[in-house]
Amino acid sequence: MTPVLWGATLGAVLAAGVLLVATRVRAMRRPQLAVRVLPYVRDLPQVGALPTPTGSGLLKPTLRAAADTVERVLGGATSVRRRLERANIDKTVHEFRVEQVLWGIVGFAAAAAFGVLRMLGGSSSVAGSLLLCGIAFVVGVLARDSHLTGQVRARERRIIAEFPTVAELLALAVAAGESPVLALDRVVRRSGGELSVDLSRVLADIRTGEPVGAAFDRLAAATGLPLVARFAQGVAIAVERGTPLADVLHAQAADVREASRRELIETAARKEVFMMVPVVFLVLPITVLFAFWPGVVGLSLTTP
């Protein structure tokens, strides 16, 4: 295609988009029947949420169909639901699939723009651009899934970092004579980390009438961290059997600190070679340069 045809095509697409936007804006300005009737029926129970006057309603059926297609192709709804719970993201699997589709659309749009620019330069074909757009869409969908895994790992790292402090606070509160529920309430009110969010859910379940052991057992089953699972199981067993809870919490906090120290040492041992890179390629050459440069300058001055 010649640049003139490309310009005409892009202009037609732009005009169609502007026409669609103008039509939708004109329709949005009309007051909806529900909005006009609502002031007179406020005392009646609301069956559902009122429709919002936005343009997203036009794309919702398409996004839902695309999300269902992604779910059928990828599967793993149980794994996604589990990771959403572990990342403390209040979304359903279907909403996550919609986000994956949106990420794929962004990748598709970026690849399409790149393909159009290459076509205008005459260095690309339609088939290659379509293949690139399809690959970009798949990469965007998979990137959202990978980002969810990264969110889970980041949250779990924060939980591990704050676990010893929370366990020590619980142990101190229990040792001071408070019951496990009161100690848990005190720690939740005084702290504000990710582990405190999980403990606040446990406290809410206990206040609704669920037994303490059952609430902590549920936390042990829901978490993806072995140390938090052991902590919850230890608290549940201590409450059920009447064993000293403060000693259990102190021991678990000490175990977590020791495990963190051991992991730090192992990480440093694995990265020992990378730690030598700045020494060998930066510090050592500069040291050699400072040592030999004055001699080289002196030789150049004394040489006739």
TrEMBL record:
What residue ranges are annotated as transmembrane?
Answer: 6-23, 101-120, 126-143, 273-293
Highest taxon above the source species: Bacteria
Q: From the Swiss-Prot or TrEMBL record, state where the protein is found.
A: Cell membrane
Pfam families from the UniProt entry:
T2SSF
Membrane association type: Multi-pass membrane protein
Specify the signal sequence span: none
Q: Which UniProt keywords apply?
A: Cell membrane, Membrane, Transmembrane, Transmembrane helix
All residue ranges annotated as the Type II secretion system protein GspF domain in the record:
168-290
Protein name stated in the entry: Type II secretion system F family protein
